[in-house]
């Protein structure tokens, strides 16, 4: 039996694509290993959203040169979002000529064919499909966990935020037919899955490309009716598309988790406009207010970009104020990274790196104490936790998540993995909670 490794970078979409690649490879009689020396095929599933993500991949590919020299039969593949950019293809085909197969985000299903072609010709295979209108339903996934599962509900993005490469790497927005989604989730439930995480770049606009009149809230309601599924999460929603119906769904659907990840990116109206986000800070805050009216204890998280071109101290202050006003539980914070081909890359008022780093630190200094204060409110509470796995460092400690998505560590037996149990919170930190079985 041949052996493979997949190294994944980027978002949940990519993680799930890797689960599909793994399913395809196992169908080709490959088996997963973690030892590079005995590997027959290595795949890098790449992310292009920031320069740092790309640099990691180039670093890894550089290291593989030696391994390929020692084992010329090793097949090295690179796929994912970087492959949808001309720049990365040019760099890999010129500087990393030991890479054998390059394919993109639209043709994962063709992997067996690509490997065959490479094996029979010995020549580099490049297969990039710029745009894929159809959705391939024949590929299943070799999922990491049995009790929680990623499920794609839509692909691509039509928003073209001026800093973002995703609409170019993932193509135009297209929704999966509801019957396929429901069928997949029913099957997951039959196999013991308790939690589904619905994936899309902008899940609130789900349904727009369907022939029938069916939207994201319709889908949530149908999933809420599936026996065995106990938790529903989704990633990611765009503030401009959060409807009153979705907000009300939080009150109506018992399985919808108490968490909303709502990327704000900036608190300055001027910057939001140049980012092409199509909402104002007032619109955003209004939606937060409405959602809190329905679910007062909802966990709120966000994404923030620091140092977008032309961001002034005043703009940045608006972001800090918004962070305080919302009181986020946590946030993913990013230094703005120039992405060739996006409108923001050509703006001539790029922010100095030192200023970006300094603002980044100030943002963390505001965010973290708020997160900790929010967690302190949970002290002494009994919370429902889905037990996910055993801690890497201490095998007597289990990791689980609350419905708000917070990570809880507690002592317990690994037979609890996959169950939803009550845990009493006895200590809290900025990013994690500590509990005991109650
Ligand atoms: N579709 C999702 C996520 C897209 S990428 C959404 O719209 O929210 C995840 C995050 O990466 C974005 O929310 C944004 O905060 C960040 N990001 C995207 N492009 C970036 C860039 N050029 N530089 C820095 N951060 C970026
Ligand atoms: Fe990128 Fe904006 Fe689309 Fe999100 S909504 S993927 S940030 S273009
Ligand atoms: Fe995801 Fe990165 Fe692609 S964030 S969609 S893997 S560019």
TrEMBL record:
Positions of [4Fe-4S] cluster 1 binding: 11, 47, 81
Keyword annotations of the record: 4Fe-4S, Cytoplasm, Iron, Iron-sulfur, Metal-binding, S-adenosyl-L-methionine, Transferase, tRNA processing
GO cellular component, one term: cytosol
TRAM domain span: 376-438
Residues annotated as domain Radical SAM core: 143-373
Keyword Amino-acid biosynthesis: no
Domain (MTTase N-terminal): residue spans on this chain: 2-120
Single GO MF descriptor: metal ion binding
Entry-linked SUPFAM superfamilies: Radical SAM enzymes (SSF102114)
Domain of life, per lineage: Bacteria
PROSITE patterns per UniProt: MTTASE_N, MTTASE_RADICAL, RADICAL_SAM, TRAM
Required cofactor(s): [4Fe-4S] cluster
Binding, [4Fe-4S] cluster 2: 157, 161, 164
SMART domains linked to this entry: Elp3
Broad class of where this protein is predominantly found: cytoplasm
EC identifiers of the protein: 2.8.4.3
The reaction(s) this protein catalyses: N(6)-dimethylallyladenosine(37) in tRNA + (sulfur carrier)-SH + AH2 + 2 S-adenosyl-L-methionine = 2-methylsulfanyl-N(6)-dimethylallyladenosine(37) in tRNA + (sulfur carrier)-H + 5'-deoxyadenosine + L-methionine + A + S-adenosyl-L-homocysteine + 2 H(+)
Compartments reported by the entry: Cytoplasm
Xref: InterPro entries: Elp3/MiaA/NifB-like_rSAM (IPR006638), Methylthiotransferase (IPR005839), Methylthiotransferase_CS (IPR020612), Methylthiotransferase_N (IPR013848), Methylthiotransferase_N_sf (IPR038135), MiaB-like_bact (IPR006467), MiaB_methiolase (IPR006463), rSAM (IPR007197)
Function: Catalyzes the methylthiolation of N6-(dimethylallyl)adenosine (i(6)A), leading to the formation of 2-methylthio-N6-(dimethylallyl)adenosine (ms(2)i(6)A) at position 37 in tRNAs that read codons beginning with uridine.
Family affiliation: Belongs to the methylthiotransferase family. MiaB subfamily.
NCBIfam families linked to this entry: MiaB-like-C, miaB-methiolase, MiaB/RimO family radical SAM methylthiotransferase
HAMAP family: tRNA_metthiotr_MiaB
Quaternary assembly: Monomer.
Name of the protein described by the UniProt record: tRNA-2-methylthio-N(6)-dimethylallyladenosine synthase
């Amino acid at each position: 039996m041949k052996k493979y490794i997949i190294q994944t970078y980027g978002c949940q979409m990519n993680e799930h694509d890797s689960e599909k690649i793994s399913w395809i490879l196992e169908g080709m009689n490959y088996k997963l290993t973690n030892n590079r020396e005995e590997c027959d095929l290595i795949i890098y599933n790449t992310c292009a959203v920031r320069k740092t993500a790309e640099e990691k991949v180039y670093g890894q590919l550089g290291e593989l040169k030696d391994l390929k020299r020692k084992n010329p039969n090793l097949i090295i593949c690179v796929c994912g979002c970087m492959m949808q950019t001309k720049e990365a293809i040019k760099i890999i085909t010129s500087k990393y000529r030991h890479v054998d197969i390059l394919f993109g985000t639209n043709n994962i299903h063709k992997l067996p064919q690509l490997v065959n072609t490479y094996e029979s010709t010995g020549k580099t295979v490049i297969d990039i499909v710029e745009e894929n209108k159809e959705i391939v339903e024949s590929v299943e996934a070799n999922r990491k966990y049995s009790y929680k599962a990623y499920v794609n509900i839509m692909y691509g993005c039509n928003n073209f935020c001026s800093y973002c490469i995703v609409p170019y790497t993932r193509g135009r927005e297209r929704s999966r037919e509801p019957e396929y989604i429901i069928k997949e989730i029913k099957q997951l439930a039959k196999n013991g899955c308790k939690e589904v995480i619905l994936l899309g770049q902008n899940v609130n606009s789900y349904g727009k490309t369907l022939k029938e009149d069916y939207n994201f809230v319709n889908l949530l309601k149908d999933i809420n009716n599936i026996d065995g599924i106990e938790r529903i999460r989704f990633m990611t929603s765009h503030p401009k598309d959060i409807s009153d119906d979705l907000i009300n769904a939080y009150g109506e659907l018992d399985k919808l988790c108490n968490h909303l990840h709502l990327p704000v990116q900036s608190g300055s109206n001027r910057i939001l406009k140049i980012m092409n986000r199509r909402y104002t800070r007032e619109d955003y805050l209004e939606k937060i207010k409405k959602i809190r009216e329905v679910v007062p204890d909802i966990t709120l998280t966000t994404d923030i970009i620091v140092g977008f071109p032309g961001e002034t101290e005043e703009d940045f202050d608006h972001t800090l104020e918004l962070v305080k006003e919302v009181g986020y539980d946590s946030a993913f914070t990013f230094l703005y990274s120039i992405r060739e081909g996006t409108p923001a890359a050509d703006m001539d008022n790029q922010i100095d790196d030192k200023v970006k780093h300094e603002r980044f630190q100030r943002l963390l200094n505001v965010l973290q104490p708020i997160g900790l204060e929010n967690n302190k409110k949970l002290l002494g509470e009994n919370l429902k936790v889905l037990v996910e796995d055993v801690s890497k460092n201490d095998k007597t400690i289990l990791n689980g998540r609350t419905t708000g998505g917070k990570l809880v560590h507690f002592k317990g037996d690994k037979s609890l993995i996959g169950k939803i149990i009550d845990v009493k919170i006895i200590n809290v930190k900025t990013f994690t909670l500590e509990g005991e079985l109650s």
